[in-house]
Amino acid sequence: MSKYQGARLEWQDFKGVVPEVNAAVQALSQIAAKAGLDKSLLELIKIRASQINGCAFCVQYHILTAETLGVPADKLNLLAVWREAPVFSDRERAALAWTESLTTLGHGVDDDVYNGARAEFSESELAYLSSAVAVINVWNRFGVAYRWTPQARQKKSQAAAS
Fold this sequence. Notes:
Helix content is 68%, strand content 0%. It is mainly alpha-helical. The protein has one domain: AhpD-like. The N and C termini lie far apart (44 Å). The relative contact order is 0.19.
C-alpha cells in the first residue's frame, strides 16, 4: 500500500481531457433523481459505494452534497456501519444492501438482497437505483485511478457563525 502522493490528474482537468466522457457520465448521474428517486437516498448510496471503493474524492463530494440536502449528521457518520445503526429506514437499508451487492459483485446479488430491494422499490425504481449505483462506481474508478483531491469543506465566516 503506497502513501498518498497527490493527484495524477484533477477532476477539473479530467473534464477537459475527455469532455465527451464527462458529459456522458454526468448525464447518467442525473437520471435516477430525474426519475423521482429521493436525492438524499441517492447521496447515501453514492457515499456507501465510494467508501467501499476507497474514493476519497467521491466520499467527500457526496457528503458535502448530502449535507446541503439536509441529510442528518448521524446518518452520514454511521453510514459505514448502517446495519448496526437504528437511524436508517427499511427503504434506505434495502438500497444500501443493493448498493453493496452491486458494488462488490464478487458472488452476484443474493436473492434475499433482491427480494428486500423489491419489497421497497418498484421494478423501475430498482432499475434507476441500479443505474445510480453503476454510475457512482464509474466515477469511483476515475477518482481512484487519478487520485482526485477531495474538495475542502468551506469554513463558515465569522459573520455567518454569529
